[in-house]
Design a protein that fits this description.
- It holds the Pfam family AAA_5.
- By secondary structure, this protein is α/β, with parallel strands linked by helices.
- It has two domains: 216 residues, Rossmann fold (3-Layer(aba) Sandwich), CATH 3.40.50.300; 139 residues.
- Helices cover 51% and strands 11% of the residues.
- It has 16 helices and nine strands.
- The strands form three sheets. It has a five-stranded parallel beta sheet with strand order 2-5-8-1-9.
- The longest helix is centred in the last third of the chain and has 21 residues.
- The protein is globular.
- The structure holds adenosine-5'-triphosphate (ATP) and magnesium ion.
Length: 371
């Protein structure tokens, strides 16, 4: 089934694995959860030999084990889970994996924007049915959150802080009373949440909205902060994991030299340390330089080599993609990249050799083209 979708949700992509885990799971499960907390952790962080399983479970989210445990425990409690962090730190992906493992449904999602209204988290009406038959439960359109309440499963709220305070207030009542009333109806006018219902929300710490959440709403969520991955080994694993998936999805046969992966990781590490010592925003790249951004750069380079190159990823192409992806603001970002190329890539290329000279040249050309 997952072959027919551009991007299958985690419960579809990992259906066989989840079925198997369910069949061997003997641990206690809260509410109607499909897996026990231990199995959920194993599904997300992968198995180790000491787990003694007959089947190897690959790691899907890379990060601290204690964060994942806290997230799971929160969902078994009365409170919702709020994942906060910089863009591209894997918040949405973790939310999806949690919902897939707990409820086998990660698609009950509301996207928070300035235009999100209370209807999006409660219910709305099918106008033509209301005109024909009047208001009833049949002519009501439940929101994804209401569907999650009725089913006793996880509902997701992406970018919570981008929604208005009205919407956030409506969420407070859902999280505390655990029901939604439908005043338009005379009877059957309350939808109660079934056990197992909870909400996983995400918020971007660059949006600055987290502090503006009302204290009433904050109290109904446990906050779990997701840090930017700076450990090179984990980062390399994430990038490799995602890239292999991309190659499979596009059915691309392409050689990905490990030395190029090293160059990519090294450049991001250098640019991050430059950003952290920058004093003004003008001296900082606009990009958060997250792992997701690295994946984007590599994806771009791979597709470029596949369609326009000779099916080998070259340092020059990688440099071009890196410059192209990170130069968002002209001239600020280009000036920062230019400085980096002169001050860091050039000496490295002289000292280390290897693919660095080609990387140096490719970046220079790209910067010159964009300037
Ligand atoms: N720690 C991680 N483990 C596994 N994959 C990760 C991790 N961090 C980032 N990724 C990958 O990066 C991509 C982007 O992640 P995701 O969309 O979850 O980020 P996000 O934190 O929700 O960002 P935003 O705040 O911009 O919405 C995904 O493809 C994800 O697989
Ligand atoms: Mg997200």
């Amino acid at each position: 089934m997952s072959d027919d979708m551009l991007r299958a949700p985690a419960e579809v992509k990992y259906a066989a694995e989840l079925d198997w885990l369910e069949s061997v799971d003997t641990g206690p499960k809260p509410f109607s959860w499909r897996l026990s907390p231990r199995m959920i952790r194993l599904f997300i962080l992968g198995s180790e030999r000491s787990d003694g399983l007959d089947r190897e479970i690959p790691q899907k989210w890379f990060g601290d084990r204690s964060l994942v445990e806290r997230a799971i425990v929160t969902l078994a409690s009365d409170r919702g889970l709020l994942l906060i962090g910089d863009p591209g730190t894997g918040k949405s992906w973790l939310a999806e994996l949690l919902a897939a493992a707990i409820s086998r449904n990660s698609t009950l999602v509301v996207q928070g924007t300035a235009g999100t209204t209370e209807d999006h988290i409660k219910y709305s009406w099918n106008v033509s049915m209301v005109i024909a038959k009047g208001q009833s439960r049949d002519s009501m359109i439940p929101s994804p959150i209401m569907t999650a309440m009725e089913g006793g499963v996880i509902g997701r709220f992406e970018e919570l802080t981008r929604s208005t305070s009205d919407v956030q207030d409506a969420l407070i009542s859902i999280l505390s009373e655990k029901y939604v009333s439908i005043p338009e109806l005379d009877d059957d006018n309350i939808v109660f949440a079934q056990p197992g219902f909870s909400i996983i929300a995400t918020a971007n710490s660059r949006d600055r909205g987290v502090n503006d959440l009302s204290s009433a709403l904050k109290r109904r969520f446990n906050f779990v902060r997701i840090p930017v991955v700076t450990n090179k080994k984990s980062e390399a694993e994430i990038v490799r994991f995602r890239t292999e998936e991309l190659l499979r999805r596009h059915q691309i046969e392409l050689d990905l030299p490990p030395t190029l992966l090293d160059i990519l990781l090294q450049s991001f590490a250098d640019l991050r340390s430059a950003a952290s010592s920058a004093t003004s925003d003008d001296d900082k790249l606009e990009s958060a330089l997250s792992t997701a951004e690295q994946i984007g750069v590599l994806e771009d380079a791979i597709l470029h080599s596949h369609f326009f190159g000779d099916r080998v990823l070259r340092a020059q192409t990688l440099a071009g993609s890196l410059v192209g992806s990170l130069a968002r603001r002209s001239p600020e970002d280009l000036a920062i990249l230019n400085k980096y190329w002169h001050g860091v890539v050039e000496p490295r290329s002289k000292k280390d050799g290897g693919e660095w000279p080609e990387f140096l040249e490719g970046g220079r050309e790209a910067i010159a083209t964009l300037s």
